[in-house]
Write a structure and sequence with these properties.
The strands form 2 sheets. Strands 8-7-6-9-10-11-12 form a 7-stranded parallel sheet, sandwiched between helices. The protein has a 5-stranded parallel sheet with strand order 2-1-3-4-5. Strand 3, helix 4 and strand 4 form a beta-alpha-beta unit. It folds into 2 domains: 130 residues, NAD(P)-binding Rossmann-like Domain (Rossmann fold), CATH 3.40.50.720; 183 residues, Rossmann fold (3-Layer(aba) Sandwich). Helix 2 runs parallel beside helix 15 and helix 6 crosses helix 9. With 338 residues, it is of the alpha/beta class.
């Protein structure tokens, strides 16, 4: 942008902004941009965004920001880059954004480290039946360790299948390396050489499901991935296998999963996401002893959440200095992996 400062609109409400930013990140943004902040404790309406975007070279969004509809884009004559200080941008941008050549980035690479750690924790909790033992100790039932019916397993040396190989799955692959697992990956949008660089092997879906000891889901929710793990897929899994989902709830047919778990057809599951959130009160998942349920908490820790705005600011600095953002999103990748 030569000597002139870029004009950047920040749509994030003040309360959320304080949770996901640090003073040094704002100072960095102001060093190269003229910034307009959202003054409200709420997200902009579509009309407000349309009005304010007209003069913006870049826009920084986060959870709950209005979508870049055709109407908004028609006003965004100068817009060159959108940075989402959160994870998936799917609810906020459309194919039209990419067709106009607007660069899109997000903070998924920052969030992914937290989600990957949480996913690893859930895998270990499943295999070693840790939550059930914790509950038994609260009941002062020391003998549960002998009376339990769930078998405990090591992670070391097992086969782990990753469905979707985006940011989180790649971070998880790094965390799994010391466990000397065999990694299978199903992701039609990632080249085999890239998968191999993480010590993993490309697989088709049914081979992965039928041979893995742990199946971990890392999918974006699209029309193609909705319910992609259904009854047939679940029944293809090994009786001793565990399913872990920290991506999107609706990629799994919950009714089929409840049946398969209830029958003991697979060893168990760990679910942090659900098709309807909060999980409805009458869900049969609550009553199953071989499923671990958490209320969509696998995202960034409180510590890591403070880094989200700064991740986007650094990409904006690179972009407006003539460089390439580190976290640029392609449309094809957006449509499959989380």
């Amino acid at each position: 942008m030569s000597a002139l400062k870029a004009k950047v609109l920040v749509t994030i409400p003040r309360g959320l902004y304080d949770l996901i930013s640090r003073p040094e990140d704002e100072a960095k943004l102001r060093s190269f941009a003229e910034v307009t902040f959202n003054p409200y404790e709420r997200n902009f309406t579509e009309g407000e965004l349309s009005e304010l975007i007209a003069d913006a070279d870049g826009c920084i969004t986060s959870w709950g920001s209005p979508k870049f509809t055709d109407e908004v884009l028609s006003m965004a004559k100068r817009l060159k880059i959108i940075g989402h200080a959160a994870g998936s941008v799917k609810p906020y941008v459309s194919e039209a954004v990419f067709k106009r050549g607007i660069v899109v980035t997000n903070a998924a690479s920052t969030i992914s480290k937290s989600v990957a750690e949480f996913t690893l924790a859930m895998i270990l909790n499943c295999l070693r039946v840790i939550p059930q033992h914790l509950d038994a100790m609260r009941r002062k039932d020391w003998n549960y360790r002998e009376s339990r019916v769930l078998t405990t397993w090591d992670l070391n040396g097992k086969r782990v299948g990753l469905i979707g190989f985006g940011h989180v799955a790649r971070e998880l692959a790094k965390l799994l390396k010391p466990f000397e697992v065999e990694l299978l990956v199903y992701d039609p949008y990632v080249e085999e050489e890239h998968i191999a660089s993480y010590g993993a092997k490309r697989s088709d879906m049914m081979e992965l499901l039928s041979t893995s000891d742990v199946v971990s889901l890392h999918l974006a929710l699209t029309p193609d991935t909705y319910g992609i793990i259904g009854e047939e897929e679940l029944r293809a899994m090994k009786p001793t296998a565990y399913l872990v989902n920290t991506s999107r709830g609706a990629v799994v047919d919950e009714s089929a999963l409840a049946r398969v778990l209830g029958e003991g057809r697979i060893a168990g599951a760990a679910l942090d996401v659900f098709e309807q959130e909060p999980l409805r009160d009458d869900s049969p998942l609550y009553n199953l002893k071989n499923v671990l349920l958490t209320p969509h908490i696998a995202g960034p820790s409180d510590e890591r959440r403070k880094l989200l705005f700064g991740t986007v600011v650094e990409d904006f600095r690179r972009f407006f200095s003539g460089g390439r953002p580190l976290n640029e999103i392609s449309y094809n990748r957006l449509m499959f992996s989380a």
